[in-house]
Amino acid sequence: MYRRIHEAVIQSPPIDDFDVFKESKDQNFFESQESIIALCTHLQEVVTTIRDLDENQLKDEFFRLLQISLWGNKCDLSLSGGETSSQKTNIMNSLEELKPLILVNDMEHLWSLLNNCKKTRGKASITRVDIVLDNSGFELVTDLVLADFLLSAQLATEIHFYGKTIPWFVSDATIRDFNWLIEQVKGSNHKWMSKCGADWETYIKVGRWVYHDHIFWTLPHEFCVMSQVAPDLYAELQKAHLILFKGDLNYRKLTGDRKWEFTVPFHQALRGFHPAPLCSIRTLKAEVQVGLWPGQAEQYIASEPSWMTTGKYGVFQFDGPL
């Protein structure tokens, strides 16, 4: 449907670049200002003291920002039916109570991989993390904060972002959303928020942050056929040391949106899609989930029949060599 809307619009200058979802996406950003300020302030506090953090403190901060990026995925206009989906509370204050809602937690694998890359990296070599984006607005801010931390902590030397080429599932991020958000953050009258925006703009200018888009992300294919349908994109992803797939739609395409048994291993459900070590960071909004322990899903089915579709639960699901 969204592709049909776009096809109609692009044949009608001067509205050929019109995003029917722009107003809702922008509103999400503005209504989340307090949370964004809190998150940017926290990031700047961490960055200014990062050289003084020992390895365990660095790991704890990495886990904290990963969880913020996960729960930022709740801010989804397609889930809310267009109603407000902004983040109006400081999510950092809720992480401990939200932790039991993470059904699969492979954050340790992510830390081991990136920390090992950091320790073994030569002076001229790079560590590349790719982030396949989901929603704009508050969730995109959480992704950019995480990306900033990865560079500041030297867990990565460059970050590559992937967004949609056209307006897609309501709040999905496009290049316009990416650039607009950074400009808004930079133009804030709050000093730490503004500092974040200025830093992010610099990362782009010097090539440490790179934005890509590709039509494949808005085609109906599951990701296991990417190497045949979009070999250029697959080859690009193969350059990453780690790929983070944000959100529910990416999870559905990773697993082929099939009715898998809950205990089927994530690796099996990917059906040969292994361009690089990867992790799905997702709150559950669709009836597909793999990689659970025997009996785990049945517990939720008995107590919460709609547990798979409300966005209440989340996963960090990793696939790659350990």
UniProtKB/TrEMBL annotation:
<keyword id="KW-0479">Metal-binding</keyword>
<dbReference type="GO" id="GO:0046872">
    <property type="term" value="F:metal ion binding"/>
</dbReference>
<dbReference type="Pfam" id="PF01937">
    <property type="entry name" value="ARMT1-like_dom"/>
</dbReference>
<keyword id="KW-0808">Transferase</keyword>
<dbReference type="GO" id="GO:0005634">
    <property type="term" value="C:nucleus"/>
</dbReference>
<dbReference type="GO" id="GO:0032259">
    <property type="term" value="P:methylation"/>
</dbReference>
<dbReference type="GO" id="GO:0051998">
    <property type="term" value="F:protein carboxyl O-methyltransferase activity"/>
</dbReference>
<dbReference type="GO" id="GO:0016791">
    <property type="term" value="F:phosphatase activity"/>
</dbReference>
<comment type="function">
    <text>Metal-dependent phosphatase that shows phosphatase activity against several substrates, including fructose-1-phosphate and fructose-6-phosphate. Its preference for fructose-1-phosphate, a strong glycating agent that causes DNA damage rather than a canonical yeast metabolite, suggests a damage-control function in hexose phosphate metabolism. Has also been shown to have O-methyltransferase activity that methylates glutamate residues of target proteins to form gamma-glutamyl methyl ester residues. Possibly methylates PCNA, suggesting it is involved in the DNA damage response.</text>
</comment>
<dbReference type="InterPro" id="IPR036075">
    <property type="entry name" value="ARMT-1-like_metal-bd_sf"/>
</dbReference>
<dbReference type="InterPro" id="IPR039763">
    <property type="entry name" value="ARMT1"/>
</dbReference>
<keyword id="KW-0489">Methyltransferase</keyword>
<keyword id="KW-0378">Hydrolase</keyword>
<keyword id="KW-0533">Nickel</keyword>
<protein>
    <recommendedName>
        <fullName>Sugar phosphate phosphatase</fullName>
        <ecNumber>2.1.1.-</ecNumber>
        <ecNumber>3.1.3.-</ecNumber>
    </recommendedName>
</protein>
<comment type="similarity">
    <text>Belongs to the damage-control phosphatase family. Sugar phosphate phosphatase III subfamily.</text>
</comment>
<keyword id="KW-0464">Manganese</keyword>
<keyword id="KW-0949">S-adenosyl-L-methionine</keyword>
<feature type="domain" description="Damage-control phosphatase ARMT1-like metal-binding">
    <location>
        <begin position="1"/>
        <end position="298"/>
    </location>
</feature>
<dbReference type="GO" id="GO:0006974">
    <property type="term" value="P:DNA damage response"/>
</dbReference>
<dbReference type="InterPro" id="IPR002791">
    <property type="entry name" value="ARMT1-like_metal-bd"/>
</dbReference>
